[in-house]
Amino acid sequence: MLHHIFVFFNAKVEIFFSCIVFSWFDSCLKNACTQKDLFMKKTILAIATILSFGASAEIVETVPVSYVFDMPTDSGAADYADHTGEQLIDGLIHTDDEWLSDVGRGYAYDIVGWGEWAAGADVTFVNIDFSFGDARYLDSLSYGAFTDQGAAIYAPDVNVYALENGVWELKNTLTVQHQLRDETISTRDLFTIDLGFYAEQVRFEAVRTQDVPYREHYWTFIDEIDFFTNSNLSSAVSVNTGFGATGLLMAGLLGFSMRKRNGRK
Predict the structure, then answer these.
(1) What sign results for the dihedral spanned by CA atoms 114, 115, 121, 123?
(2) Predicted structure pTM score
(3) Is residue 238 helix, strand or coil?
(4) Which of 72, 135, 147, 251 has a CA 20 to 30 Å removed from the CA of 129?
């Protein structure tokens, strides 16, 4: 945990340091107005460009190596099995709001589904445990789930955990609000959950929602679960070495430019 805090802090320091350097470069450019300082100008611009790449952050998808779930899938009008063992992370989504439709791979093929016969709320449909192979920073996750009130299909509430020292620690929750509507309507909805932590293993717990009529049987259908990371924080190694590499490069280029300015070789 302390290591993760240090890595996060180190990345923030790098960005802050780059902002200060940019300000200093701007001042130097304004003052470097003679022909003698032309080389200095070019050097400063080169360093600024390099720093801009080093300090920029981008949110990108990070795909788990594998996952397992602790409850068997169910079947009904179709077979809602995970046919490949990676349907939840393969990037193939069910592009039709109608869950039973065929979008080119078979009826409801892209959907992985679980049924729950217990009455009441807060009943766990399934725990899906994702493994990334190594610890990485997770910025958020998104998942696609279906709601068809006539067929008792509801997007689930979700609890997200990280495995820390052998214990699943709760990190965030999402409670889905279901408004009464036409029971003939089926929709695929995309939900996003903020994360903001490092983990090698993450648990996605799909829970029976609280605000729907109690029936004998409910379904939850999910077609994709995607994780996203901040590119500056995705690798502890790159973040820890980034500041040092940027600093050394800046110092080297600046020193070289000063030697040229003073007529030294």
Answers:
(1) negative
(2) 0.70
(3) helix
(4) 147
For 60-230, the fitting CATH number among 3.40.190.10, 2.60.120.1190, 3.30.420.10, 1.10.238.10 is 2.60.120.1190
Tokens, residue 180: 């009464």
Strands 124-147 and 187-207: antiparallel
**Positive or negative, the Cα torsion across 8, 10, 14, 16?**
positive
In 109-247, which ranges are E strands?
112-116, 124-147, 157-164, 167-174, 187-207, 218-230
- The DSSP 8-state label assigned to residue 32 in this structure reads -
* Token pair recorded at residue 30: 């304004």
- HEC profile for 110-139? CCEEEEECCCCCCCEEEEEEEEEEEEEEEE
pLDDT in tens, the chain (265 residues): 434 443 444 444 444 545 554 455 555 555 555 555 555 655 555 555 555 544 556 889 999 999 999 999 999 889 999 999 999 999 999 999 999 999 999 989 999 999 887 766 678 899 999 999 999 999 999 999 999 999 999 999 999 999 999 999 999 999 998 888 898 999 999 999 999 999 999 999 999 887 676 666 789 999 999 999 987 775 543 344 344 444 545 555 555 455 554 555 5
Two tokens at 23?
A: 């300000």
